[in-house]
Amino acid sequence: MAATTKTLENVKANILSAHKSITLAEKVDFYNSWAENYDQDVAVLEYRAPSLAANCISSHFSGDCGAAVVLDVACGTGLVAKQMKKLGFGHFVGIDGSEAMLDSARESGLYQDLKQCMLGEGPLPVQCGSFDVVVIVGALSDGQVPVGVVRELCKCTKPGGYVCMTTRRNQDNVEYKEALERELKQMEADGLWTCVEVSEVEDWERAVSEHEDGYIPGVVYLYKRQL
After folding, report:
1. What b/e sequence results for 129-166 when a residue is b if at least 16 CB atoms lie within 10 Å of its CB, and e otherwise?
2. Residues 15-31 pLDDT 10s
3. Which residues of the chain have pLDDT under 70?
4. Looking at the whole model, is its pTM more than 0.90?
5. Does the CA dihedral 75-80-86-91 come out positive or negative?
6. Signal peptide position in this chain (predicted)?
Protein backbone atom coordinates (compact mmCIF):
# COMPACT_ATOMS: atom_id res chain seq x y z
CA MET A 1 0.00 0.00 0.00
CA ALA A 2 2.81 2.40 0.88
CA ALA A 3 4.50 1.71 -2.46
CA THR A 4 1.26 2.50 -4.33
CA THR A 5 0.78 5.74 -2.41
CA LYS A 6 4.37 6.76 -3.08
CA THR A 7 3.94 6.06 -6.79
CA LEU A 8 0.79 8.17 -6.93
CA GLU A 9 2.53 11.00 -5.10
CA ASN A 10 5.45 10.82 -7.54
CA VAL A 11 3.08 11.04 -10.51
CA LYS A 12 1.26 13.98 -8.93
CA ALA A 13 4.54 15.82 -8.36
CA ASN A 14 5.59 15.27 -11.96
CA ILE A 15 2.30 16.54 -13.40
CA LEU A 16 2.21 19.54 -11.07
CA SER A 17 5.69 20.47 -12.26
CA ALA A 18 4.23 20.78 -15.78
CA HIS A 19 1.91 23.53 -14.54
CA LYS A 20 5.03 25.65 -14.01
CA SER A 21 5.82 25.37 -17.73
CA ILE A 22 4.71 28.68 -19.17
CA THR A 23 6.26 28.92 -22.62
CA LEU A 24 5.39 26.60 -25.50
CA ALA A 25 8.97 25.33 -25.59
CA GLU A 26 8.81 24.44 -21.88
CA LYS A 27 5.58 22.51 -22.37
CA VAL A 28 7.05 20.55 -25.29
CA ASP A 29 10.17 19.79 -23.22
CA PHE A 30 7.97 18.46 -20.42
CA TYR A 31 6.06 16.11 -22.71
CA ASN A 32 9.27 14.98 -24.41
CA SER A 33 10.70 14.06 -21.01
CA TRP A 34 7.43 12.39 -19.91
CA ALA A 35 6.96 10.19 -22.98
CA GLU A 36 8.98 7.24 -21.66
CA ASN A 37 6.89 6.90 -18.48
CA TYR A 38 3.60 8.35 -19.71
CA ASP A 39 1.62 5.11 -20.06
CA GLN A 40 2.67 3.86 -16.62
CA ASP A 41 1.91 7.20 -14.98
CA VAL A 42 -1.59 7.59 -16.40
CA ALA A 43 -2.30 3.99 -15.40
CA VAL A 44 -1.50 4.99 -11.81
CA LEU A 45 -3.99 7.86 -12.21
CA GLU A 46 -6.62 5.38 -13.48
CA TYR A 47 -7.08 7.69 -16.47
CA ARG A 48 -10.28 6.56 -18.21
CA ALA A 49 -10.67 9.17 -20.95
CA PRO A 50 -9.17 7.09 -23.82
CA SER A 51 -11.50 4.14 -23.25
CA LEU A 52 -14.53 6.38 -22.60
CA ALA A 53 -13.97 8.29 -25.84
CA ALA A 54 -13.40 5.11 -27.85
CA ASN A 55 -16.59 3.54 -26.48
CA CYS A 56 -18.58 6.71 -27.22
CA ILE A 57 -17.41 6.74 -30.85
CA SER A 58 -17.99 3.02 -31.30
CA SER A 59 -21.54 3.18 -29.95
CA HIS A 60 -22.59 5.72 -32.60
CA PHE A 61 -20.43 4.81 -35.61
CA SER A 62 -22.54 2.78 -38.03
CA GLY A 63 -20.08 2.42 -40.91
CA ASP A 64 -17.27 -0.08 -41.50
CA CYS A 65 -14.93 0.47 -38.55
CA GLY A 66 -12.08 -1.36 -40.23
CA ALA A 67 -12.21 0.93 -43.27
CA ALA A 68 -12.74 4.16 -41.32
CA VAL A 69 -9.87 6.65 -41.27
CA VAL A 70 -9.34 8.15 -37.80
CA LEU A 71 -7.40 11.34 -37.04
CA ASP A 72 -6.03 11.14 -33.50
CA VAL A 73 -5.14 14.69 -32.48
CA ALA A 74 -2.72 15.11 -29.54
CA CYS A 75 -2.26 11.37 -29.90
CA GLY A 76 0.51 11.09 -27.32
CA THR A 77 1.79 7.53 -27.07
CA GLY A 78 -1.30 6.06 -28.73
CA LEU A 79 -3.66 5.24 -25.87
CA VAL A 80 -6.80 6.24 -27.79
CA ALA A 81 -5.82 4.30 -30.91
CA LYS A 82 -5.11 1.28 -28.72
CA GLN A 83 -8.64 1.40 -27.30
CA MET A 84 -10.24 2.02 -30.71
CA LYS A 85 -8.29 -0.86 -32.22
CA LYS A 86 -9.96 -3.19 -29.69
CA LEU A 87 -13.33 -1.98 -31.01
CA GLY A 88 -12.55 -2.73 -34.65
CA PHE A 89 -11.01 0.50 -35.94
CA GLY A 90 -7.74 0.01 -37.77
CA HIS A 91 -6.61 3.04 -39.77
CA PHE A 92 -5.07 5.84 -37.70
CA VAL A 93 -3.24 9.09 -38.44
CA GLY A 94 -1.73 10.76 -35.39
CA ILE A 95 -0.74 14.36 -34.66
CA ASP A 96 1.18 15.56 -31.62
CA GLY A 97 3.48 18.42 -30.62
CA SER A 98 6.04 16.18 -28.92
CA GLU A 99 8.52 14.22 -31.02
CA ALA A 100 9.20 11.85 -28.13
CA MET A 101 5.49 11.09 -27.79
CA LEU A 102 5.33 10.48 -31.54
CA ASP A 103 8.28 8.08 -31.26
CA SER A 104 6.33 6.07 -28.69
CA ALA A 105 3.23 6.16 -30.90
CA ARG A 106 5.35 4.94 -33.84
CA GLU A 107 6.64 2.03 -31.77
CA SER A 108 3.05 0.97 -31.05
CA GLY A 109 2.61 0.03 -34.72
CA LEU A 110 -0.96 1.38 -34.67
CA TYR A 111 -0.53 4.38 -36.95
CA GLN A 112 -0.27 4.54 -40.73
CA ASP A 113 1.04 8.11 -40.49
CA LEU A 114 2.27 10.44 -37.75
CA LYS A 115 2.83 14.19 -37.96
CA GLN A 116 4.44 16.70 -35.61
CA CYS A 117 2.33 19.85 -35.14
CA MET A 118 1.85 22.44 -32.42
CA LEU A 119 -1.90 22.66 -31.91
CA GLY A 120 -3.27 26.18 -32.11
CA GLU A 121 -0.34 27.45 -34.19
CA GLY A 122 -2.20 27.13 -37.49
CA PRO A 123 -4.11 24.64 -39.65
CA LEU A 124 -3.60 20.95 -38.95
CA PRO A 125 -1.18 19.31 -41.44
CA VAL A 126 -3.82 17.08 -43.03
CA GLN A 127 -6.32 17.36 -45.87
CA CYS A 128 -9.62 18.98 -44.94
CA GLY A 129 -12.72 16.82 -45.00
CA SER A 130 -10.81 13.54 -45.24
CA PHE A 131 -11.47 11.73 -41.93
CA ASP A 132 -14.39 9.58 -40.85
CA VAL A 133 -13.58 10.22 -37.19
CA VAL A 134 -11.50 12.95 -35.52
CA VAL A 135 -10.71 12.51 -31.83
CA ILE A 136 -8.87 14.62 -29.27
CA VAL A 137 -8.50 13.27 -25.74
CA GLY A 138 -6.76 15.02 -22.86
CA ALA A 139 -5.44 18.11 -24.63
CA LEU A 140 -8.52 20.34 -24.39
CA SER A 141 -7.86 21.83 -20.98
CA ASP A 142 -6.58 24.95 -19.27
CA GLY A 143 -3.00 25.75 -20.23
CA GLN A 144 -2.87 23.17 -23.01
CA VAL A 145 -4.67 23.61 -26.36
CA PRO A 146 -6.67 26.76 -27.23
CA VAL A 147 -10.44 26.31 -27.58
CA GLY A 148 -10.36 27.51 -31.19
CA VAL A 149 -8.68 24.26 -32.25
CA VAL A 150 -12.11 22.59 -32.33
CA ARG A 151 -12.89 24.44 -35.56
CA GLU A 152 -9.85 22.78 -37.15
CA LEU A 153 -11.09 19.40 -35.96
CA CYS A 154 -14.42 20.00 -37.68
CA LYS A 155 -12.74 21.08 -40.93
CA CYS A 156 -10.74 17.83 -41.05
CA THR A 157 -13.85 15.67 -40.71
CA LYS A 158 -15.81 14.30 -43.66
CA PRO A 159 -19.41 15.52 -43.96
CA GLY A 160 -21.38 13.09 -41.81
CA GLY A 161 -18.24 12.14 -39.88
CA TYR A 162 -17.75 12.34 -36.12
CA VAL A 163 -15.67 14.55 -33.85
CA CYS A 164 -15.06 13.29 -30.30
CA MET A 165 -13.58 15.57 -27.64
CA THR A 166 -12.96 15.36 -23.92
CA THR A 167 -12.22 17.77 -21.12
CA ARG A 168 -12.09 17.75 -17.33
CA ARG A 169 -14.90 19.07 -15.12
CA ASN A 170 -12.81 19.80 -12.05
CA GLN A 171 -12.34 23.12 -10.28
CA ASP A 172 -9.14 24.05 -12.14
CA ASN A 173 -10.78 23.68 -15.55
CA VAL A 174 -14.12 25.47 -15.02
CA GLU A 175 -13.42 28.56 -17.13
CA TYR A 176 -11.86 26.57 -19.96
CA LYS A 177 -14.79 24.13 -20.05
CA GLU A 178 -17.27 27.02 -20.19
CA ALA A 179 -15.37 28.64 -23.07
CA LEU A 180 -15.15 25.30 -24.87
CA GLU A 181 -18.87 24.66 -24.58
CA ARG A 182 -19.68 28.16 -25.84
CA GLU A 183 -17.59 27.44 -28.93
CA LEU A 184 -19.17 24.00 -29.47
CA LYS A 185 -22.68 25.48 -29.25
CA GLN A 186 -21.79 28.43 -31.50
CA MET A 187 -20.50 26.03 -34.14
CA GLU A 188 -23.76 24.10 -33.90
CA ALA A 189 -25.73 27.34 -34.27
CA ASP A 190 -23.61 28.12 -37.35
CA GLY A 191 -24.68 24.81 -38.90
CA LEU A 192 -21.21 23.24 -38.84
CA TRP A 193 -22.19 20.18 -36.80
CA THR A 194 -24.84 18.68 -34.56
CA CYS A 195 -24.44 17.37 -31.03
CA VAL A 196 -24.82 13.59 -30.79
CA GLU A 197 -23.90 12.95 -27.16
CA VAL A 198 -22.54 14.70 -24.10
CA SER A 199 -21.56 12.21 -21.42
CA GLU A 200 -20.53 13.45 -17.96
CA VAL A 201 -18.38 11.04 -15.96
CA GLU A 202 -17.64 11.33 -12.25
CA ASP A 203 -14.57 9.07 -11.87
CA TRP A 204 -12.46 10.45 -14.73
CA GLU A 205 -9.04 10.13 -13.14
CA ARG A 206 -7.35 10.55 -9.80
CA ALA A 207 -6.97 14.16 -8.69
CA VAL A 208 -3.47 15.63 -8.86
CA SER A 209 -3.93 19.24 -7.71
CA GLU A 210 -3.07 20.15 -4.14
CA HIS A 211 -6.65 21.21 -3.28
CA GLU A 212 -8.47 18.15 -4.66
CA ASP A 213 -8.73 14.58 -3.40
CA GLY A 214 -10.13 11.33 -4.71
CA TYR A 215 -11.25 11.42 -8.33
CA ILE A 216 -12.10 14.34 -10.59
CA PRO A 217 -14.99 14.39 -13.10
CA GLY A 218 -14.78 14.77 -16.87
CA VAL A 219 -16.95 14.90 -19.97
CA VAL A 220 -17.01 13.33 -23.45
CA TYR A 221 -18.54 15.28 -26.36
CA LEU A 222 -19.51 13.69 -29.67
CA TYR A 223 -20.53 15.85 -32.65
CA LYS A 224 -21.48 14.94 -36.22
CA ARG A 225 -20.35 17.20 -39.04
CA GLN A 226 -23.14 18.57 -41.17
CA LEU A 227 -23.38 17.63 -44.84
Report:
1. eebbbbbbbbbbbbebbebebbebbbbbbbeebbbbbb
2. 887 766 678 888 899 99
3. 1-6, 19-21
4. yes
5. negative
6. none
